[in-house]
From TrEMBL:
<feature type="domain" description="Ig-like">
    <location>
        <begin position="223"/>
        <end position="310"/>
    </location>
</feature>
<dbReference type="InterPro" id="IPR007110">
    <property type="entry name" value="Ig-like_dom"/>
</dbReference>
<feature type="domain" description="Ig-like">
    <location>
        <begin position="521"/>
        <end position="615"/>
    </location>
</feature>
<feature type="signal peptide">
    <location>
        <begin position="1"/>
        <end position="23"/>
    </location>
</feature>
<dbReference type="InterPro" id="IPR013783">
    <property type="entry name" value="Ig-like_fold"/>
</dbReference>
<keyword id="KW-0325">Glycoprotein</keyword>
<keyword id="KW-1015">Disulfide bond</keyword>
<keyword id="KW-0677">Repeat</keyword>
<dbReference type="InterPro" id="IPR013151">
    <property type="entry name" value="Immunoglobulin_dom"/>
</dbReference>
<feature type="region of interest" description="Disordered">
    <location>
        <begin position="668"/>
        <end position="701"/>
    </location>
</feature>
<dbReference type="Pfam" id="PF13895">
    <property type="entry name" value="Ig_2"/>
</dbReference>
<dbReference type="InterPro" id="IPR050412">
    <property type="entry name" value="Ig-like_Receptors_ImmuneReg"/>
</dbReference>
<dbReference type="GO" id="GO:0019221">
    <property type="term" value="P:cytokine-mediated signaling pathway"/>
</dbReference>
<keyword id="KW-0732">Signal</keyword>
<keyword id="KW-0472">Membrane</keyword>
<dbReference type="InterPro" id="IPR036179">
    <property type="entry name" value="Ig-like_dom_sf"/>
</dbReference>
<keyword id="KW-0812">Transmembrane</keyword>
Length: 827
């Protein structure tokens, strides 16, 4: 029993520990509102929820709602998310909480944020008893009252939304409702500025308009004001700048001073709100550069001066260049060196970071052997959590506030792991000098901006996204007129406006500039420009000058051109591109280029175009002949003419052979069935397997011919002739033997029997073989009178025509040498 209890206890402890490990401790997120939790009716508010960098999703919900109110992905940095309300009204007031989700699970909810909407009712009044002037360490009572029957009054201190006091109201005999707030001890080390509101208990988060601000004045030394320039402290020549000076609400007048001037440089009354004033310079020039400070005057006296603000005017000298070594593209956590240089002999160079006016680094310039002056600025560790965009300018020591123009902006790019975009060129990968070049970067991911980078280049041009089409984000990068400097390897990146992180790089795109080398290679093909599918084809590119690289491009092809690099140190004048075996996809127009490996993106002039025609080995009709555009065209025209003459010669030879054979047959009519024999009419359907009786003793060769070539013919009736039925299918037996059904028909005119022959052949037969044809018809009709009517097939052994040679008996005058004779056996 004890062992069972011990086991159960251990199991329970194990389960308890495992549950705690799975749940895991999560940091409770922080929730706050900007500009604050007290929002005027109709104003916008941003609610921030901050957790941990591992958070993947944040959720905001309002107490009293059945589900979460809003869902948001993480922003940059990844430990927070923001939720915006553009137009705040009464339903938006209430208590909010947030939590986040991470791969480990879900956090606990944040502390509540009470969002208050003001402006529903008229504003109350706020006063100090006995006076708003309080000695240091003294106390005062603030009275908030209204003629509305508010059940509660709320007192807030400006600048710190965490300080808020709430008291129940008390009706007065005068008909007003009011509450008394004791405040103190009051010290001059901080600002004591208050407002109050009225509300009801059942709508505690809906307040009235705020009262007018009341500030307690503590006599003594006034705090010094703060000074800053709205556009930054580096101002281009001729631009405008606004200088702000901020003090206390009781300030009545502000004064701006410039170092080196004997009196105040500018005087300005307070603005709304009354704790600040602005000073504008509409056109910055050399006299406006320098160090500035400000002060304010109040009923309590004059404040001390602010800390100095140094304004620098740029544009008095040429623009320096800013580059990243080794490249502006680097991995997260990496370091880089920024180089600012100029041909002008500046004493110092200053590096600034956009969006961070506190970042300013100064380095003395160093003269170089090339004649340039430059300074190196190490930068790092670089992370994708912020934007790394820099400019630099040069200055002289005797004029520290008059400097050069700002350099072009240089942004360091830290690629991320999001989907890579695609980069393409509308003009194709091979361009010519003087041609306009535009690169397009696109992605199905909804990026807001794209950046283009050239390998080995220091610039990183950026472009905003054009209007998305069919869900495709894209941007165009016009690179002006093509020159040799445009040749190179390019990649592009996608990014978002609210994030400094970029996507993974696109696949590289090589831009090749043709015409840099003035020679023009020639392109030829072996065995010829017309080939059948499955053959081996070799395209040969030959240059007039020794080259170590050759390229072959196909017109209209999306793939980059084929590049053939010869062996190291090999300088030859030609290269061969093999296609084994070719298909119809290889057909098209080709050109070739030559190049040097030391300048791989600069090519020669293109060769003359060569059209490769690929035909299928069998099938439908071959395509109409198309002459290639290469110089081999006249040779093929000669081949075609030769082929036509050979075909005509063969046709005349066949016609002459037919003429001689018919002549021999017409002279040997004494034995009309010479070279043939007639079987007795026994009613059999096939001559094979039957005893054919006595044979013609023309020798073994003639017997073999008779076995291979015979015909059985249906007996015609008197007055009828024999014809082949074209509707009956010809069947082919073994060894190429063809069977044809013979049908009976009425006699036809002689001219209709020859309609299937060509006019030329018909004319020859008509003049030489008319009598032989009539004799054969008479013999056939005579043999058919004594035989019954039946259907047989005629078998023609086509192989025998080329294999057997006999020497039949002819008359002495017509005897011919041995030749191929066709024999027929009639059954």
């Amino acid at each position: 029993m004890t062992s069972i209890l011990s086991a159960l206890l251990c199991l329970g402890l194990s389960l308890d520990q495992r549950t705690r490990v799975q749940a895991g401790p999560f940091h409770k997120p922080t929730l706050w509102a900007e500009p604050g939790p007290v929002i005027n009716w109709g104003s916008s508010v941003t609610i921030w929820c901050q957790g941990t960098p591992e958070a993947e999703e944040y959720r905001l919900y309002k107490e009293g709602s059945t589900a979460w109110w809003y869902q948001q992905k993480t922003l940059d940095p990844g430990d927070r998310a923001k939720f915006s309300i553009r137009h705040t009204t009464k339903p938006d007031a209430g208590r909010y909480r947030c939590y986040y989700r991470s791969p480990s699970g879900r956090s606990e909810p944040s502390d509540p944020l009470v969002l208050v909407v003001t402006g529903t009712y008229s504003k109350p009044s706020l006063s100090a008893l006995p006076s708003p002037v309080v000695t240091s360490g003294g106390k005062v009572t603030l009275q908030c009252g209204s003629s509305w029957d508010f059940e509660r009054f709320i007192l807030t201190k400006e600048g710190d939304h965490r300080l808020s006091w709430t008291l129940d109201s008390w009706p007065q005999t005068s008909g007003q409702f009011q509450a008394m707030f004791p405040v103190g001890p009051v010290t001059p080390t901080q600002r004591w500025r208050f407002r109050c509101y009225g509300c009801y208990r059942n709508r505690s988060n809906v307040w009235s308009l705020p009262s007018d601000a009341l500030e307690l004045l503590v006599p003594g030394t006034l705090p010094k004001p703060t000074i800053w320039a709205e556009q930054g402290d580096v101002i281009p020549w001729g631009s405008s700048v606004t200088i702000w000076c901020q003090g206390t609400p009781r300030a009545e007048e502000y004064r701006l001073y410039k170092e080196g001037s004997p009196a105040s440089w500018y005087q300005q009354k307070t603005l709304d709100p009354g704790d600040r004033a602005k000073f504008s310079i509409t056109h910055m020039t050399k006299p406006d550069a320098g160090r500035y400070s400000c002060s304010y005057h109040s009923p309590s006296g004059q404040s001390e001066r602010s800390d100095p603000l140094e304004l620098v005017v740029t544009g008095s000298s040429s623009t320096p260049s800013l580059s990243a070594l080794p490249s502006p593209v680097l991995t997260s956590g990496g370091k880089v060196t920024l180089q600012c240089g100029s041909w002008e002999g500046f004493d110092t160079f200053i590096l600034t970071k956009e969006g961070d006016h506190r970042f300013s680094r100064t380095q003395d310039s160093q003269p170089q052997t090339s004649g340039q002056y430059q300074a190196l600025f190490p930068v790092g560790t670089v992370t994708p959590k912020q934007k790394w965009r820099f400019r630099c300018y040069g200055c002289y020591r005797n004029r520290p506030n008059m400097c050069s123009l700002l350099s072009d902006a240089l942004e360091l790019l830290v690629p991320g792991e999001s989907g890579k975009p695609s980069l393409l060129s509308h003009q194709g990968p091979i361009v010519a000098p003087g041609q306009s070049l535009t690169l397009q970067c696109c992605s199905d991911v909804g990026y807001d901006r794209f950046a283009l980078h050239k390998e080995g280049g220091q610039d990183l041009p950026e472009s905003l996204v054009l209007q998305p089409q069919a869900g495709l984000a894209q941007a165009h990068f016009p690179l002006d007129t093509v020159s040799s400097s445009h040749g190179g390897r390019y990649r592009c990146y996608g990014g978002y406006n609210l994030s400094s992180e970029w996507s993974a790089p696109s696949d590289p795109l090589d831009i090749l500039v043709a015409g840099h080398l003035l020679d023009r290679p020639s392109l030829s093909v072996q065995p010829g420009p017309r080939v059948a599918s499955g053959e081996n084809v070799t395209l040969r590119c030959q240059s007039q000058s020794p080259r170590d690289t050759f390229l072959l491009s196909k017109e209209g092809a999306a793939d980059p051109p084929l590049r053939l690099r010869l062996k190291d140190g090999s300088q030859q004048s030609q290269a061969e591109f093999s296609m084994s075996p070719v298909t119809s996809a290889h057909g098209g127009t080709y050109r070739c280029y030559s190049s040097q490996s030391s300048f791989p993106y600069l090519l020669s002039l293109p060769s003359e175009s060569l059209e490769l025609l690929v035909s299928e080995p069998s099938g439908g009709p071959s395509p109409p002949p198309t002459m290639p555009t290469s110089t081999a065209g006249p040779i093929w025209e000669l081949y075609i003419l030769i082929g036509v003459f050979v075909a005509l010669f063969l046709l005349l030879s066949v016609l002459l052979f037919l003429l001689l054979r018919n002549r021999c047959q017409s002279k040997d009519r004494t034995s009309p069935l010479r070279g043939a024999h007639v079987q007795p009419p026994a009613g059999t359907t096939h001559p094979k397997g039957k005893d054919r009786g006595p044979q013609n003793s023309s020798g073994p060769a003639l017997d073999a011919q008779e076995e291979a070539l015979y015909a059985s013919v249906k007996d015609p009736q008197p007055g009828e002739s024999v014809e082949l039925d074209p509707r009956n299918r010809q069947d082919e037996g073994p060894q190429g033997v063809t069977y044809t059904q013979v049908n009976r028909s009425r006699p036809r005119p002689r001219q209709r029997m020859a309609t299937s022959l060509s006019p030329l052949l018909g004319g020859l037969l008509d003049t030489r073989g008319r009598q032989a044809e009539e004799d054969r018809q008479m013999d056939s009709q005579a043999a058919a009178r004594d035989t019954p009517e039946y259907v047989t097939y005629a078998q023609l052994n086509l192989l025998a025509l080329n294999e057997k040679t006999t020497a039949p008996h002819f008359s002495t005058s017509d005897e011919l040498p041995d030749e191929h004779i066709v024999y027929a056996s009639l059954s």
